[in-house]
Amino acid sequence: MARPVVGIVSNSHLINDQYLIHGAGAMNAQALADVSGVMPIVIPADPNVMLVEELLATCDGFFFPGGRPNVHPEEYGEEVTDAHGTFERGRDRISLPLIRACVARGQPVMGVCLGFQEVNVAMGGTLYPEIRDLPGRDNHRMPPDGSIEEKFELRHEVTVTQGGPFHQLFGAHKVMTNTLHGQGIKVPGPRIVIDGYAPDGTPEAIYVADAPGFTLSVQWHPEWNADADPVSRPLFQAFGDACRSWAAGGLRQAV
Q1: How remote is the C-alpha of 227 from its chain's centroid?
Q2: Taking Cα atoms as reference points, which of 33, 16, 21 lies closest to residue 237?
């Protein structure tokens, strides 16, 4: 039986400051293939070469990974400041309408880090430009030094809602996660349910209320060590199951 197809929305960057590419982290594709059991494909984040309708008809689910750029603040009605960092407007114009369309159709979506923030913005929410500048908040950014293992090591607890979907998935009320982000949810979208928090009150796990399909998204990076981590593995497995259900229903072409 063919594996469900999952599109990974890419990030754009330059090789040697000259050659533009659309790329996605290898560990994202590995986690989706090995743990979710799906076939990952990289989607160019460029509305000039991709249409949302085409993507909906091609893929069974979508994975929105982390990335260096941030959602442009005009997408949630705020002015640009230096604290907002860099942007990738092509990704905004693919990700945000794609998320809204998938939520409406019940097509599975999973957001990680920047993707988590995109889900909130797509559903009408706003973002803080820099979590560490807020009173009482911790620095959630990637450590500047150390090995890749040290950068992605588990650094804080996330407390999820008792009896909520993440609690049911993890089998635990508190779990340990890594943290490698600068921005975070300021105001959740009207249908966004914050289901998990870091110790400093930063939202870490969300879903879309009354969505007909899978919408679980997290602020941390579960793709790291996904096959062995007791938190990452059930999350990716559940996403894969949702994509298989969508594919089995023959709904991919019904745009």
Answers
A1: 18
A2: 33
Of 102, 113, 130, 140, which residue is the catalytic one? Answer: 113
SS3 120: helix
118, 181, 223, 243: which is the annotated catalytic residue? 223
Task: Note the Cα 91 to chain centre separation in Å.
Answer: 13
Structure tokens at 2: 């063919």
Q: Given 3.40.50.880, 3.40.50.620, 2.60.40.290, 1.10.150.120, which CATH number is that of 5-11+21-139+181-248?
A: 3.40.50.880
Annotation marks residue 221 as catalytic: yes
The closest alpha carbon to 220, from 62, 108, 113, belongs to 113
Q: Is the pLDDT of residue 253 over 60?
A: no
Express each pLDDT in 168-221 by its tens digit.
Answer: 999 999 999 999 998 999 999 999 999 999 999 999 999 999 999 999 999 999
Please report the DSSP string for 165-203 in residue order: HHHHHHT-SEEEE----S-EEEE--TTEEEEEE-TTS-E
The residue from 84, 140, 181, 221 that is catalytic is 221
36-59 pLDDT, tens per residue?
Answer: 999 999 999 999 999 999 999 999
User: Would residue 223 show up in a list of annotated catalytic residues for this protein?
Assistant: yes
- Residue 254 pLDDT more than 80? no
Residue 113: active-site member: yes
Predicted confidence (pLDDT) at residue 255 exceeds the cutoff of 60 = no
